[in-house]
């Protein structure tokens, strides 16, 4: 069992490349503060990625999540059935770094996916879900706080070719 290092008072923010991504869902409690957000049914705006898509996700937190799942769906956002099985799934835990590596630097947690996790071009949707331990005083009600993000990427091959020239 891991040593308890404290609960996070607020959900972390997520950065992909240089872009900060708004949470898609939040179910968080710390002390008497409760934060809930459910954007289900609201599609995030797709954004373009010129060149090779970054394989690194950054969480603004010095604590690594207890559980982090990254699900990748190939295709445009409008064509994805959210109840379908993802094309690729990566699970990271503080004790298992076999799929993605995490490192805490400058009060951030960097998650690096395998280099072949994202396609060289095309549309792809990433679903990122994280679980953090709740305060021990809340364990009668909950053990974890959760937050998730959804990213719709349009990766252009032309831009990738231009960067290589």
From TrEMBL:
Protein name stated in the entry: Uncharacterized protein
Organism per entry: Arthrobacter terricola
């Amino acid at each position: 069992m891991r040593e308890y290092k404290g609960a996070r008072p607020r959900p972390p923010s997520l950065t992909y490349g240089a872009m900060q991504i708004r949470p898609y869902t939040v179910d968080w409690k710390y002390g008497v503060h409760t934060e809930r957000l459910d954007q289900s049914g609201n599609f995030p705006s797709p954004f373009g990625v010129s060149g090779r898509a970054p394989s690194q996700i950054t969480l603004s937190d010095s604590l690594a999540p207890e559980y982090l799942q990254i699900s990748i769906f190939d295709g445009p956002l409008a064509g994805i059935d959210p109840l379908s099985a993802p094309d690729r799934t990566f699970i990271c835990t503080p004790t298992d770094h076999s799929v993605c590596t995490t490192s805490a630097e400058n009060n951030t947690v960097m998650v690096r996916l395998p280099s072949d996790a994202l396609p060289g071009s095309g549309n792809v949707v990433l679903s990122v879900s994280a679980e953090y331990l709740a305060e021990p005083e809340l364990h009668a009600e909950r053990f974890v706080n959760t937050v998730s993000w959804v990213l719709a990427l349009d990766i252009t091959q032309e831009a990738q070719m231009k960067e290589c020239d």
